[in-house]
Design goal:
Blueprint lengths: L4 E2 L18 H6 L2 E4 L3 E4 L4 H10 L11 H23 L5 H11 L7 E5 L3 E5 L7 H18 L6 E3 L8 E3 L9 H21 L7
Length: about 210
């Protein structure tokens, strides 16, 4: 078995966000583990420090958050279940019960509605309740809710997997584009050109060297 190694720093993403990721944080969440040519692999949630950074950059945690490994592991676990559901939607096959259960469980981790609070000076107001002890629960709930919205909303028809191997990212298709980035598009076109050249050279009547 080939060992994959982490090569890029989380501070410098290896690829720009895939099309649709800016509208759907769950899509960017699913794409936070990136497979690249040469057996290279980058996990933006691979350590507590990188998970901290990812949550902060997506406005899902305060700047001073310090997650422990158990919390980072919860994020990685939900990510795999979300990826499983995206794969089921793209592939047109039934979702795994465990993936559905994991997303539904995350949906209940934090209040979905803005709760009623009371300020001594200004009186009543409504705000989402996610104190420091529930940062991860709140993040899991937000990401699970967005994944559910993506899978059941109109954008689900445009959901597809990047067509440039070995890339494992998902995107929302625009026209005929099936690539998550210019880099993947260039690699896919180069692979097709190489395959056509080899086919032409191996066809009957072609010049032999």
């Amino acid at each position: 078995m080939r060992v994959m190694k982490e090569t890029a720093t989380a501070a410098e993403p290896v690829l720009p966000p895939a099309p649709g990721a800016e509208q759907h944080p769950a899509l960017d969440f699913a794409n936070s583990a990136v497979a690249m040519p040469g057996g290279q692999f980058t996990d933006l949630l691979g350590t507590p420090a990188t998970a901290n950074r990812w949550l902060i950059e997506h406005d899902l945690a305060p700047a001073d958050v310090e997650l422990q490994e158990m919390c980072a592991a919860q994020l990685r676990s939900l990510r795999e279940q979300v990826r499983s559901l995206l794969a089921s939607r793209v592939g047109g096959h039934p979702a795994l019960p465990g993936a559905l259960a994991a997303v539904n469980d995350a949906l209940t981790r934090a209040p979905a509605a803005s709760l009623l609070h009371w300020d001594p000076t200004h009186g009543p107001y409504r705000a989402a309740s996610h104190p420091t002890t529930q940062i991860v629960e709140h993040a899991l709930a937000v990401l699970a809710a967005d994944a559910a919205d993506l899978l059941t909303g109109p954008d689900a028809e445009r959901l597809t997997a990047c067509g440039s191997s070995p890339c494992n990212r998902y995107l929302l298709r625009h026209g005929r584009r099936h690539w998550c980035s210019i880099r993947c598009g260039d690699r896919a076109r180069a692979a097709r050109a190489y395959a056509r050249r080899n086919q032409a050279e191996g066809s009957p009547g072609s010049p032999q060297t």
